[in-house]
């Protein structure tokens, strides 16, 4: 029996209208829809897609990805997800695995993909709108002009002062609990007028911040900060 294909499907930052036509077609023709779950049974990715595609006849595969930095726990969850998907692929069915933003940027899918590629399964990636590009559009700012570089930086695990000293525009992602420290560093470096943020871009509870004085240390995990 011919094995199925795993599709990594980018669904954009939150607005269902930003799901690409190609992504929609893959989701519509795939019987099995895999969706990440982080600590609860709710899936933001699935809720976004359900506003654009009828999922009533789909087999939904909830994949558990704990919010932890424990390498052993993460590796185990990635393997378990890959094993679940492989079982469906072995039956000849395709699987569309949903991913917020773009599938190639800070994606848990990448870990599952690498496991399945090592096992010689077919994998295809469907690109999408990144959260930072959508956020820049909401802010009505350009991320780059002429020869200015653009840096995509995780706000945890880096030297923030060193990162913010880089030339060009800095986009900070994966902020989580680092927001209070980030606010402190931005203020210390005198960047209070050159910073912007979008929280929950494309969702009903989206908030836009222009200038450090509008920032809140309790801004959520799905916050994109842009430093010009």
Structure at a glance:
This protein is α/β, with parallel strands linked by helices and 228 residues long. Helix content is 31%, strand content 23%.
Give a written overview of the molecule.
The structure is a single chain. The chain is α/β, with parallel strands linked by helices. It is 31% helix and 23% strand. It contains seven helices and ten strands. The strands form two sheets. A five-stranded parallel beta sheet has the order 3-2-4-1-5, sandwiched between helices. A five-stranded mixed beta sheet has the order 6-7-10-8-9, with helices on one face. Helix 3 (71-90) crosses helix 4. The chain starts with a strand and ends with a strand.
Which SSEs are present, and which pair or pack?
Blueprint: E1 5-10, H1 21-29, E2 32-37, H2 44-50, E3 59-64, H3 71-90, E4 95-99, H4 109-118, E5 122-126, H5 131-139, E6 150-154, H6 160-164, E7 169-173, H7 179-188, E8 195-199, E9 207-210, E10 223-227
Helix pairs in contact: 3-4
């Amino acid at each position: 029996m011919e094995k199925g294909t795993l599709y990594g499907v980018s669904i954009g930052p939150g607005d269902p209208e930003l799901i690409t036509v190609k992504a929609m077609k893959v989701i519509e023709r795939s019987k099995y829809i895999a969706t990440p779950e982080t600590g609860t049974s709710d899936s933001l990715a699935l809720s976004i897609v359900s506003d654009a595609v009828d999922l009533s006849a789909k087999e939904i595969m909830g994949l558990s990805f704990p919010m932890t930095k424990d390498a052993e726990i993460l590796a185990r969850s990635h393997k378990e997800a890959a094993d679940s998907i492989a079982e469906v692929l072995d039956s000849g069915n395709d699987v569309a695995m949903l991913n917020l933003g773009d599938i190639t940027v800070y994606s848990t899918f990448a870990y599952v993909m690498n496991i399945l590629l090592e096992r010689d399964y077919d994998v295809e990636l469907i690109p999408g709108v990144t959260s930072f590009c959508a956020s820049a559009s909401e802010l009505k700012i350009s991320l780059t002009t002429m020869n200015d570089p653009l840096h995509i930086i995780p706000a945890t695990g880096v030297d923030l002062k060193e990162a913010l000293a880089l030339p060009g525009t800095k986009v900070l992602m994966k902020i989580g609990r680092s927001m209070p420290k980030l606010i402190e560093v931005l203020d210390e470096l005198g960047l209070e007028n050159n910073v912007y943020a979008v929280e929950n871009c494309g969702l009903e509870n989206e908030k836009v911040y222009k200038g450090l004085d509008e920032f809140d240390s309790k801004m959520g995990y799905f916050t994109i900060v842009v430093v010009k």
